[in-house]
Amino acid sequence: MDKIKFSVSMCVYGKDDPEYFDEALKSVIDQTLKPDEIVLVIDGMIPEATKAVIKKYISELKEKNINFTIIPLEKNVGHGEARRIGLNKCTNEFVAIMDADDLAVSERFEWQIRYFKKYPETSVVGGNIEEFIGDSKHCVGKRIVPTTDSQIKKYMKKRCPMNQMTVMFKREDVAEAGGYLDWYCEEDYYLWIRMYLAGKKFRNINRNLVHVRVGDEMYNRRGGMQYFRSEARLQKYMLHKKMITKIRFLINIVERFIVQVMMPNKLRGIFFRVFARKK
Q1: Residue 115: what pLDDT?
Q2: Collapsed DSSP state (helix, strand, coil) of residue 140
């Protein structure tokens, strides 16, 4: 295929496991279609072991002719702001998002670039995820997302239709919608909503693009009153923008209150793995 240059934007935090971070970076490099650039935001203080991983890849990426831009931040600024800073430093029009503890499948970027060639009007291309504990072959859950623009926009009125850690997008189209902005645990959903309102187009590939490392703490983070209030504000935003009806708003609020506030953490984990991971 004709070469399209693209960047990979990553953020690493002090609590990220250095070994998992090493594996995540390796999965980005060991691609059938390699990135031209990796932009890494260090969001606050990190341990020496994580610094050693970064140092190792500085020389390795240089040998592979992949630009490696490192942006250290003295203080933790949070996911939305860190994503925004990283995206602003990317030099290519196409940018892929990657988390610091997940594993990209080896054909991920090749599939996504092929989709952009096939559907040039598209602004964002994502895909499915498989969740694992310990070994990536130990799949404990999947999140299957809708594939076409119309399906994605319909689904967006109920739940987030994109798996954030799988997306590749056109940087200019994201910027036109305002880019990443802070919204507690929902900065990605908030971005897709604003891109929807700006008339941008979405696609998801019906393939697993990323193996996502999970644990009970992930499901714990998806519960509690603070998380529910953040989600409720997002639903109010969609209602205010006439993206959803009052009926849809009430259904969304009730469903979220049951799952995020009333449901015990252990039961919430089972719910997400079994009932909430398919379209």
Answers
A1: 97
A2: strand
SS3 at position 185 = coil
- Which of 13, 62, 14, 19 is CA-nearest to residue 37? 62
Cβ-contact 169, 90 below 8 angstroms:
no
**Could you give the CA distance from residue 26 to residue 36 in angstroms, rounded to a whole number?**
15
- pTM score, whole prediction: 0.91
pLDDT digits (tens, 9 = 90+) for 20-62: 999 999 999 999 999 999 999 999 999 999 999 999 999 999 9
Compute the radius of gyration of the chain from its Cα atoms.
18
Distance CA 106, CA 28 (A): 8
Alpha helix segments (H runs only) across the chain: 18-29, 48-63, 79-89, 108-118, 149-156, 171-176, 187-197, 216-221, 225-240, 246-257, 265-274
C-alpha torsion sign, points 166, 170, 173, 178: positive
Whether the CB-CB separation of 92 and 5 falls below 8 Å is answered with yes
Mention every residue, 6+ apart, whose C-beta is less than 8 A from residue 237: 190, 193
* Residue type, position 114, single letter: R
| Beta strands at 6-12 and 37-43: parallel, antiparallel or unpaired | parallel
